[in-house]
Amino acid sequence: MTIHPELVEKVHVEAAKYPSLKGKGVLITGGGSGIGASLVEHFCAQGCRVGFIELNANVADETAEAIGKKTGNKPFYRAVDLRDIDALKAGIAALRSEIGPIRILVNNAGNDDRRPIEEVTPEYWDERFQTNLRHQFFAVQAVVPEMAEAGGGAIINMGSISWMRGAAGLIFYTTAKSAVMGMTKSLARELGERNIRVNSIAPGWVLTERQVERAKRIYQGKFSEYLEVQCLKEHLLPPDIARMALFLAADDSRLITAQTFIVDGGVV
Ligand SMILES: NC(=O)c1ccc[n+]([C@@H]2O[C@H](COP(=O)([O-])OP(=O)(O)OC[C@H]3O[C@@H](n4cnc5c(N)ncnc54)[C@H](O)[C@@H]3O)[C@@H](O)[C@H]2O)c1
C-alpha cells in the first residue's frame, strides 16, 4: 500500500489486540485498496481468517501478498464485481470454503465519484446505488445463517459524513450513504434476537491513495482547508477507520448495536 509520505502523517499508535477476534472468519468487501486494504491488514494482524472481495484482481493479489508478508497471515480473496449480486454470493461461498464460517462482515466497498445533476441518468443513478448500497444488504443476507448458527456475529457497514454535511456534486452517493444509517438500524433490530450486532462507521475525509491523487489533481488547497474544519489538526488515515472496526467486531463491544460511529477528527 502506498502512503504518500509528503502529505500524510504516520499513525504512531500501536493497534490494540482483541483476543476475541483470534481465529474468527472475517469477510471484507473492497479490500484491495484504501480503507479496505487497511481493514484486511488489521484483521489479519489479529490472527483472524480473512477473506476479501475486490473488483481489481491485480490489486487484490498485490495487497494479499503484501499483507501476508507483513502479518504472516495471508488473506484470501476473490476478484468479483459486487454490483452483480449472484457473483457476490458465489464469491462469498468460495471464500467461506477457505476461511470457514463468517462471523464478522465489513461492508466497505464504495465509490464517491462526482457528476453534476444535469449529467445524472437513471442508469447512472442505479449503478451508483449498486456500487454504494445494494451489495451491503445482500452480503448481510448471505452471511446471516452462519452467524446465527454460530451463536452471533458482527456486521459493520461503511457510511460517510458527506451526507450529514450536505456535500454537493455526488448526490447519488450521499443519498445512498444516508440510507446506510437507516439500513443499519433496521438490520440491528431484525437480527438482534440472533445475537448479530450491526453498526456503521461514518468516516470523514480519509487520505487513501485515491483521495490523495484526486485532491492533488483537482484542488491542492483541500488538504489545508479540510484541517480547518476538523477540530483535530491531523489528516485521517485508513488505520484510524480500521481500528474502530476492530473494536466494533470484537466482543469488547458486545452490547453495542444499531449505532453509527463518526470518525472524522471532529468536523464541526
Ligand atoms: N476515503 C474517504 O475519505 C471516505 C470517506 C467516507 C466514506 N468512505 C467510504 O469508505 C469505503 C472505502 O472507501 P475508500 O476511500 O477506501 O475507497 P477506495 O476507492 O480507495 O477503495 C475502494 C475499494 O473498493 C473496490 N470496489 C469498488 N467498487 C467495487 C465493485 N463494484 N466490486 C468490488 N470491489 C469494488 C475498489 O476496487 C477499491 O479497492 C467506501 O464505502 C467509501 O464510501 C471513504
TrEMBL record:
State the InterPro entries in the record: KR_dom, NAD(P)-bd_dom_sf, Sc_DH/Rdtase_CS, SDR_fam
One GO MF term attached to the UniProt entry? oxidoreductase activity
Top-level taxon of origin: Bacteria
Q: Which UniProt keywords apply?
A: Oxidoreductase
The Ketoreductase domain extends over 24-208
Q: tRNA processing: present as a keyword of the record?
A: no
| The UniProt record lists the keyword Oxidoreductase | yes
Pfam families reported for this sequence? adh_short_C2 (PF13561)
**Family, similarity comment:** Belongs to the short-chain dehydrogenases/reductases (SDR) family.
**Protein name as it appears in the record:** NAD(P)-dependent dehydrogenase, short-chain alcohol dehydrogenase family
What organism is listed for this UniProt entry?
Answer: Xaviernesmea oryzae
